Amino acid sequence: MFTDPIADYLTRIRNANSAGHRVVEIPASNLKKEITKILFDQGYILSYKFEDNTVQGTIKIALKYDKATKEPVIKKIQRVSKPGLRKYVSSADLPRVLNGLGIAVVSTSHGVMTSKQAKNEKVGGEVLCYVY
């Protein structure tokens, strides 16, 4: 049993990236599915597939690499709000990651979205992770 499923999700992606794997399988949850959709929409992963073959289901993520240098597109993926210390921000205090080059994934009352979308909708929430 994992105490922090989001940290486990991010660690599996980080480890697969550093090992040079093309595909990573992760146990599914609704929050992980939403984060995966955001990573795909922002261009950090190649594709994803939700499989409901088990009780919990799995998420298969095809990682994206630069064609010329074979470097992973995700340079860093970092958990911000942890179970021991949650980080909540208002819409005015939403973070800019790497001066706008990265994204912050935020869980709001309107769903999971990037900090840029949350700022446009004027909602705050819990900052889940930074990706760049």
UniProtKB/TrEMBL annotation:
Indicate what this protein is called per its UniProt record.
Small ribosomal subunit protein uS8
Provide one Gene Ontology cellular component. ribonucleoprotein complex
Keywords of the record: Ribonucleoprotein, Ribosomal protein, RNA-binding, rRNA-binding
Residue ranges of the TM segments: none
Task: Give one GO term, molecular function aspect.
Answer: rRNA binding
- Look up the record and give one Gene Ontology term from the biological process aspect: translation
Q: How does it assemble?
A: Part of the 30S ribosomal subunit. Contacts proteins S5 and S12.
The family assignment reads: Belongs to the universal ribosomal protein uS8 family.
Tell me what gene encodes this.
Answer: rpsH
Domain of life (superkingdom): Bacteria
| Function comment | One of the primary rRNA binding proteins, it binds directly to 16S rRNA central domain where it helps coordinate assembly of the platform of the 30S subunit.
Q: Species lineage, top-down?
A: Bacteria, Pseudomonadati, Bacteroidota, Flavobacteriia, Flavobacteriales
